[in-house]
Amino acid sequence: STLSSSSAASDVYKRQSIDLVAVIDRSGSMKERIELVQETIKFMIQQLKSTDQLGIVVYDHEVDILLPLTKMDADGKQNASLALKRLSARGQTNISGGLLQALDMIRTQKNGNEVSSVLLFSDGKANIGIVSTAAIVRAVEGVFNQLNSVCSVFTFGYGEPDPEYLKSVSDVGNGMFYFIDKAEAIPDAFADCLGGLLSVVAQNIVLTIEASKSTKIKQVLTHYRTEIESPGAFVKVYIGDLYSEEQKDIMVLVEVTPIDEPKESDNIVEFNLQYLNVLGKGQHSEFQREWVKATRSKQTPPEIIINKPIDKQKNRLTAAQALESALKAGKDNDYNSARQHLEVAKSRIQSSSTATDEYCSGLVRQLDQCSQDVKDKKEWKKTGEAKLTSMLTSHTQQRATHVVSSYSTKSKSVMRSFFSNKTSE
Description:
alpha/beta, 39% helix, globular
């Protein structure tokens, strides 16, 4: 199943207004990065329209609200810029305190917008507050259950962050984890994220897959959360949101029972799509339904024709599985096994029918690069774990970052280019 949206949806004037809360790490280790983060947030302020709202939360061992959710009209933008000037580095790292404060601002907002997001910046590991990954996931889930609006959480890790902690937060928050290996990349990563957020076309996407009487669903090949309501017959996939020009591919492996007589058109599986359309005035629910049909014969065809779009998606899943396995091996300090997982995946992609496709060639290059990042403990700690985590997020969600451009959209590219031009002036 392929979900996609057109470029027509990227017009910023058609989008719903958005509530954003920036959660900024001001611990002592941020001293060299604070100025660049301030400039990045200033750029975001310039891109917001008067009906958007922005809040700013800062944290070290304490948590402070520099700016409550404020409409970004002329006065609001001036107040936001003044608030940023009060930002300075000090103290320890209470990530959970800053994150939960931001989510609470959205939860208690009485006249909030229908689209909201939290952007969390951190350059280290949580050392006070909720430091356990499992515990922060439960805490975020608890707040999300109380929200009346759709919300996402994006995390930005630079320096030596805790990628597992930050990715887990962004996963449960229907967002993305960005790894920033050098300070100069902060604006590019942030512009990429902002370009996506300002082009959301659908939210709360749920894909229901229902098998026909002659079909059994064997497996749904996706990293999105799935819910099996009836084994082999009925599966729900929770996809989250969709940006303008994005595409999501869900691979479904089915088993079809033999037939006695050939059929020109036989129902295999039915896809039902439910989502919130957030374009135009006010979000509203929409539904779409589509049967996948096939021409059936009594005998297996002598030659199997390779479907190239499906083969490309198989390669994407192969790369994602390798990244996941390499991450697990790396955490066990088994860097040889980590490289082996990546090399095996690379070989499989190179021997596939779509090996010469530009997208698949890109997968091979990325796996090659990752092999260098896991060659020893030093590289693993320096960039390996965080880079592999960020790439895994990108390929499982088919969503671009500043590092993986394979899934880039016009809105993201334009925002990155605009920011690049601003910073070079």
